[in-house]
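Why do we care about 3D structure at all? Because function follows from shape, and shape follows, mostly, from sequence. That is the central idea of this module. The next example makes it concrete: a single protein chain, its amino acid sequence, and then its structure expressed as tokens.
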Amino acid sequence: MSTSQDPQKKPIRLDKWLWAARFYRTRAIAKQMIDGGKIFYNGQRTKSGKAVSIGDIIKIRQGFEEKEVTVVALADKRSDATFAQTLYQESKQSIETREKNALARKQGILLSPASVTKPDKKQRRKLREFKERI
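And the structure:
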């Protein structure tokens, strides 16, 4: 649990901070997500070695969810989840957007359940025609 809020301590890499804040299970996965463009640091794509500082805004895409968090504290070692939650603060707009998207996904699944049988030849033809018009 070493928090480094002193500017004299060595800077913490972005991939290491994401790992310590428990957004990703391993640093390797965090690095892959950064390199894959799933992480935006102050509105821009970045490299995994970027030094994180307090007050920076990080946008994280994980599956269907997109979180926008502000760095509140720095840590270079992984600890329990309650400590990890003190390292960042998610914006209210981000929370509202995630809740709306989750509700929309749930309603979409309920409104169009998966078919029990495969479409027949006529239905496939209609589907193909519909997709080509779009």
